[in-house]
Amino acid sequence: MSVSNIVKGKLTMNKSALFVMMSISSLWANDNMDVSKSNIILYLSFFILLAVGIYMIWRKTVSDLETNESKENEVEEKTDKARLKILKDDIDRIKIDRQPFRLSGMLHILTNKIGEEIRKNGHVLYYDIDKELKRYIVGDNDYLEQILEILCRHLISLNTDSEIVLHLSKEGRYLVFELYNKTAQLSKKELERLNSLMQLSENASEYANTYVKAKKIAKSMAGRLTLECHKKGGTRYRLEIPFHPDRDNRSNQNVLKEKIEGKSVLFIGKTKSEIKRIEYIFHTFGLNIEHMHSDEFESKRPDISKYDIVVLHSSDLLPKQISFFKKLEERRKDNFKIIVIHELFESETKIEMTKPIADAEIYKPVIIGDVEEILYQMYILQSKAVKGINNVEVFDPAVFKIRGSRRITKKDISKFTGAYIAVAEDSKVDQRIMRNILAHEGLKVFFVENGQEMLEILEKEPIDIIFSDINMPVMDGLLMTKKIRQNKKWKDIPIISISSMAFGHEVKAMQVAGMNAAITKPIISEDVYEALERFLTVLPKWKSTSSSESKYIEGIPHNDPKILNVRQALRKYANSDAYEKVLLQVRSEVQNSTEEFTNLIYMEHYKALSEYINNLLPLYKKIYAKEMEKMLNEVLDYLSQKNKSHVMEYTFLYKEKLKAVLLEIDQYLAKR
What gap in Å lies between CA 138 and CA 144, rounded to an integer? Predict the structure, then answer.
């Protein structure tokens, strides 16, 4: 409520009080009114007291609001000054590093940071990278990503439902990043103001000051940052920095081109412009491209034998089309490949539906480095499981990610005295943060800058837990984790990701590699403590065996009764040994049932599917797996209906619920 509104209220109240008094005066003057004068005096006194009371309450409210408004302004002023100081400190500490890094890794981090704002504003994000640029470039990926994030956030905020494009090219001796929003406009005054700013200012907006920071970083890189705005071209940023070639030449483009040049690729999609954006990447490797509209695919099935690769957009695929490619899988030639492209914010259910037909997956925005990686794995390494295809268990990314729930003190950290902790992180900023969090004399903490150095540390030190970034030079966090899990000495060491990669498919890749959990950047002490609490306590030297006894109540291990109702089952069976025998029998019969269940759906053999479910139901009833029973009965009900277009979604649900049932069985048997 503003002060101006309160003033208006005051005037209205005064008018009302005047009206009441005039009304009472008229009653007094009216000789015909059969009211005693003493009663009127009482009424009048009451109304006067009421009016005075209301006025005093109103004055107090106005005073409180003015005080609160003053305090809020003071807080905002202090906050603005604090932000300005942080920016100033950041600028003073700028120290540019120069090392090779994977371009696609940096862009994925950028996508994670701005993705939610892109979605909220209805934008589409594209990365256009010239084929001259290899998979690795040389520079300071931390500071480059900071600049690009500042510029992207500004372009996103200018309007809605537009395209945000980052074009990356090499022009002479310079690496050029062009970021633009074609439909966004800045006023001439605003453009001149932003371009003229060279120093931080208390009078400038928060964005203007962060833009100054971006310009300072660019200057420290011996480059420059400019901003332009045109009616046709929209708002456009241009960052130029010196180009330093990757002398180790980590790109596989030339090797790939020799191997796959001339192969035929069929693109199937709805939007021609969307297809063309991705086509030029595949042209880089000497591939011959054809495309077909999704609607045309419905009426005219393509002769797949003519092609070596088919590229599909999962968002365009209907169950019938997925079924077509599933049936095709049984008789297709060995060197025929299917690549599925997923949307940035696609549902896990849709992703799971397309997995059985895919040899590889890519997630938008499509980056040349990702295409190079999957083609290299398919045709040079001849891998049959690119990016975890067909071997990724269904799991909840939200559970995999760690979230601390309370404020942490140094005393809390001290409980881990004696622990050997290793941190793999190439960012100096994040190293410093972890150093501050783990600064306790009782902890032995080792810092390395890449996965290879971590393997060397493990050879020398008895490490208890590892925190690792994903995108690092020499050896990234995923490859490092795979190598650790292959070594019997280290296979049980908890590995926690510390990364900006936060999308479901990226978190899933961490789990597939063998990581135990993930902390999302920016790193905070609460999350680090939660990781230590969760994973160091499972080791014998941190946790006494007596604590495991708390998991029992009346001899029955804790479990989720919705998944497996142990208590109800034990009432039916004569003793726990009899129930254990049934569990072992059911487990052996259902543990591989996902494949048959999925195949029957994809082949549209609905009669056989009904029979198969009727055989499964008694098994789940025996062990009191209530949720699974309920879901299978739903499928039977669904199969009895005419429209079966959504039945494919049950492939994902069955796999997920079976995993939960098997986990509950194993936990129960382990405690027996």
Answer: 11
pTM over 0.90: no
Question: Residues 73-118: pLDDT tens digits?
Answer: 554 555 556 666 766 776 777 778 777 777 877 887 788 778 888 9
Farthest-apart Cα atoms in the chain, separation? 114
- Give domain limits for the chain: 3-91, 99-242, 253-390, 398-543, 552-670
Per-residue pLDDT tens over the stretch 570-602: 888 877 888 888 888 898 889 889 888 888 887
Q: Do domains 253-390 and 398-543 have the same CATH topology?
A: yes
Nearest Cα to Cα of residue 450 among 100, 45, 119: 100
**Of 195-209, 217-231, 419-433, which range is least confident?**
195-209
CATH of domain 398-543: 3.40.50.2300
For 99-242, which CATH superfamily applies? Histidine kinase-like ATPase, C-terminal domain (3.30.565.10)
The residue behind tokens 């198969």 is 612
Determine the CATH number of domain 253-390.
3.40.50.2300
Q: What is the DSSP string of 161-224?
A: S-EEEEEEEEETTEEEEEEEETT----HHHHHHHHH--S--TTS-HHHHHHHHHHHHHHHTT-E
- In the structure encoding, which two tokens stand for residue 573, read together? 């069976």
Q: Confirm if 468 and 444 have CB atoms less than 8 A apart.
A: no
Give the contacts of 323 (CB within 8 A, at least 6 positions apart): 602, 603, 604, 648
Alpha helices in 498-557 (DSSP H): 504-513, 525-536
